[in-house]
Write a structure and sequence with these properties.
flat
Length: about 140
C-alpha cells in the first residue's frame, strides 16, 4: 500500500501536469483577430519591414502565401487537427475517414491609405507575434522620421 507522502507526491505531480496541459491549451488556442496600425503616409515602407520580419516566421510555422494582389497578401496554414489522428487510431479502419477533416488558419495583411491592417484566424501565439511586429515596425518608422 502506498504511504501518505507518496500519494501526496503523485497527486501533486498529476495536478501540475493537468495545470500545464490547461495552460498550453489556453495559450495555443485559435483566435479571430483584427488589428490596425496607423502608419502615417508610408504604409508600403512599414509593410515591407513587417514582411521582412514576419514572412520567415510564418513560413517556418507552416504558412504559405496563397494570394497577393494590390495591397493585400494572404497567408494560409492547413493541418490535421489532433482529434482526427486519435479517431483514426482508435476507430481503425472506419476512423480513417476522420483524416479527411483539415484545419485551416489564415492571416491577411492589407496596406491601406494610412493604415496597415492585419486580420485572420490563427493561434493566439501567432496573432500576438504579428501584433508585436507591426507595433515595433510602426514605432521604428515613426522615430526615424
Amino acid at each position: 500500500m502506498l504511504s501518505h507522502p507518496v500519494v501526496l507526491l503523485l497527486l501533486l505531480a498529476f495536478g501540475a501536469l493537468f495545470a500545464w496541459c490547461l495552460w498550453t491549451a489556453w495559450r495555443a488556442r485559435r483566435v479571430d483577430f483584427v488589428y490596425q496600425v496607423p502608419v502615417g503616409g508610408e504604409p508600403d515602407a512599414v509593410a515591407d519591414q513587417v514582411f521582412d520580419r514576419l514572412i520567415p516566421v510564418l513560413v517556418k510555422d507552416g504558412y504559405a502565401m496563397v494570394a497577393q494582389g494590390g495591397h493585400t497578401t494572404v497567408f494560409e496554414h492547413r493541418f490535421f487537427p489532433a482529434w482526427t489522428v486519435v479517431v483514426a487510431i482508435f476507430l481503425f479502419p472506419l476512423g480513417l475517414i476522420a483524416l479527411l477533416a483539415r484545419g485551416r488558419e489564415e492571416v491577411v495583411i492589407v496596406a491601406g491609405d494610412r493604415v496597415l491592417e492585419f486580420h485572420g484566424y490563427c493561434s493566439k501565439v501567432t496573432a500576438d507575434f504579428i501584433v508585436a511586429v507591426a507595433d515595433y515596425e510602426a514605432a521604428e518608422l515613426a522615430t526615424a522620421d
